[in-house]
Each structure stands twice: as structure tokens, then as C-alpha cells.
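W.,

You were right to be curious about this one. When I first looked at the sequence I had no strong expectations either way, so I just let the prediction run and decided to look at it fresh. Below is the sequence, 360 residues in total, followed by the output.
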Amino acid sequence: MRQPDADTTGRNLRLVLVADPGLPSEIARDLAPRLPEHLRRRIGRGIRWQVDTVTAPLLATEQVDASGLAEIVGTHVEDGDWDIGVLLTDLPRRAERNPVSAEVDPEHRTALISLPALGSRRLRRRVRQAVVGAVRQLTAQDEKPLDSPVGRPAPAQESNRERYVVPGLRGHARLLLGMVRANRPWRLFTSLSRAMAGVFATAAVGFMNATTWQVATALGIPQLTLTAVLSTLALTAWIIIDHRLWERAGDLPGAHAPLYNLVTLLTIGLGVFFLYAALFVTLVAVSFLVVTPSVFGRIVHHAVGASDYLTLSWFVTSISMIGGAFGTGLENAEAVRDAAYGQRHRRRQRQLTEARDRAR
């Protein structure tokens, strides 16, 4: 790390973004090319910026202890030549139960930004605002609090640090949605390849069964809705149980197991919902192409319309989700576990421990 210089006018400054693997790393790589221009507009004074990114697992605990940030940055910068270090993590950070979105250390010219506390909407924009605001403070260009999306200042144990929290119900809601966003549940859908095979195989059998046609058209909206809810909940629960994604108190020291479990439930549930929606759309298209109205009407004993095709597809989709549960038992466990916060957190703890052992 270079020695701080009070006059940054006309200087070349190197900013290093050190990001956790996954979403933080993606955002850092996406942000880096455009960040110098944003910094020039907000900071100015003729500073020429060089922005580099590094991907590495960062902190092993969610409790706020951001000491040694400069050491973490220096560990991952090979030549040790950097001016400002900003760490991006998808691990939730809390102080006295309040979500911590950022912590700035002007003395060591480092900052830590926790993505989940920034919420799920306009995340890249909020990260950019947080990074630019932190850099303004670290270059002594601005002593005002960071931009509003980051939160409000809160007392820190170290007088030379500035900590930002998002308190109250709003802060906890943003933290929850931000953690689900960091899990990227839409990617879970692509990981459930064998579950998809089980679902589509069950759908193929049920779809061509005359009894299924009769039952589907005989059910009302409340019954179809209940069947859909129960089937998706059953597949969600099976994935969580089969892959041991449910965290117990004490499994992750310093972590809040109920919060992690709620995030896991929402993430897996959304992944299953995407699978349900994809199958339903597929079956609707197939039903109109394959099932002729005359044959359909003869089986169900009444003239059929578009609503009957939708009802049939809806019912078959619901019962097929149960078949998907058998396929998930053959899934790549690592791909499914990556959608659970606790599992990803635990893997990073192991990586950090192994890295420290190798450094000794």
C-alpha cells in the first residue's frame, strides 16, 4: 500500500476491488471499466484512476469485525502497490441486530460494502454509489455520509471508522431480499436438470392419460390452486431435506440460523416456481398442438374450450412436480447447495482456513 498523500491533485491512484466469488465478483467486473469515469465526475481534481478487480473469499463471520481490511487487500494484490481498497461481500453484516451496509476506514484507506443490506432492486447502481461515496471519503474529498441507499451512520467501536446501518423493518426486509438476490434463484432452475427430467417424464405420462383429463376438468379453481401450492411446497421441502440445506443453531458460529433458513426457503421456492412456470407454458403449447378438441371432448363428455386446455396443463404440471422430487436425489449436490447461504458460507470458511494454513 502506498503512503497516503494529502494532495491527490494530478496523481495516479490505484483502486482495487476485492470481491467474494459469485455475484459480488460479477458486479465488480462489470463496474470496473466504467468506475474511473464515475470517480472523475464525482471527485475530479485531475486524479487519474486505475481500477483493478480481484476475486477471493473474504470474511468468515457476519459479525462486524472489519479489522485488518488493509491486510486482506494487500494479500490479494501481488505487487502490493495500491492506494485504495474496497471489499465487496455477499455475506450479511450486522451490528446490534442492525444490517450493516458499509464500513469505511480512512486511516487505512479501505472500505467494506455488504451487498445484501443494499437490497435487491437496482443493486448495481447502489453498489456503484456506495463505492464512489466511500472513495470520496477515503480521498478526503467528502466528509459527508455516504449516499442514502447505503444507510445512515452508526457508532463504531473504532473512532477512526465510519459504519453505516439500515435500521428497522425496512433494513431487515432489504437484507432478506438482498440475500435472496445474492443467491440468484433463477440459476437454481438450470441446476435442477435431473429434477426437470423427472418432472417432464411424469408430465408426459400424465398428460396422455384419459383419467387425468377427466379429473383435471372436474376440479374447480380452489382445488387446482391448492394442488399447485402443495406440490410446489412438497418439491421445495424435498430439495431442502434431501440436500441437508436446513441450518441448526450453532452450525454456523456467529450466523443467524433462522435468517439463513428463511433465505434458503425463499431461494429454493423461487427456483421451483421457475421450474413450475416453464413446465406449465410447455404443456399449454403441447396441449393445443397435440390434443384435438373432438378427442378431448369425447373423453370429458362435454364441448371443450381454451379454459379446459389451461386446466389440464395446470393440473398435470402440479402432479408432475412430485415426480421431480425423485430426480433431485440424483442432482449434483454442490450445484444445489450453492443456492443455500449457509452452505456457501461454510465452504468459504473452509477455503479461508485452508488459505491460512498454507500461508503458515
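Here's what jumped out at me. Strands lie at 12-19, 48-55, 84-89, 94-95, 98-105, 110-114, 152-154, 162-165. And, maybe more interesting for your project: The longest helix spans residues 257-290.

Coffee later to discuss?

I.
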